[in-house]
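Course assignment 3, question 2. Fill in each field.
Student: A.L.
Task: Predict the tertiary structure for the chain below.
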Amino acid sequence: MKTSYVLAGALLTGVFAACSVKTTKGNAAAGAGGAGAVVAASSSGVGPGPQSSVMSSSASGMTGCYDETGIVGFTVPPTTIVKQMVCTAQQFNDYMKNCVLMGATQATCDMFQKDMANAKCLACMTGDGKSTSPPALVIFPTPDMKALIYGNRAGCEALVEGKPQCGGPLTSLVLCEESACQGCKSNADFMACTTAAEAGACKDLKTKLSAECAMVGSKGFDMKCDGKDFATIAANVVAAICE
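Answer field:
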């Protein structure tokens, strides 16, 4: 299911502290998962992958809404997901208000990000480019210089199911799929696109999943990692991973 959300406003400075993006057609290197700023949200489920791994390319590069030119990965590949307990519900609400939702501005987001009291929480929520634990919220840039954000349901589900070692690989796969399919307008198109991505640029991440990790979420997502919309999913995964 497509669940990404477009951040309010354009891509602002300071958003992608954990990102290193290469968008050479048909071949994108890893690097996404920024520190936070006014962005747009996405809504799929599983998450971003390993540091500086190179995505394999498909022959076509583009089919339907599948587009390899926008594929993004993590600068530092996530591995085992860890319950961190460094955020409060109020910090999450403040982040959403100041950096994500309508009405957020660069000034309000900067104020939140520069407050050292929020540093550990922000790193857990959106990544800091150093930690190998997958972030609760994944932010990645679009070719038109906006940003998409989605709740890391896959990483959350791995944690909830007691398979923390699956958090990183699943997070990486989902980021690859989300960024390859960011142009899809319907759930049907998005599902077809992820199938194409798994046979194309995301194939390596897909085939490297262990059988155990491939089964994470196969019976549906736990309510702690899911929700009816982006805001609910984001609140739930942040609570499960960071609070």
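Instructor remarks: The chain is about 35% helix and 10% strand. The radius of gyration is 16 Å.
Grade: pending
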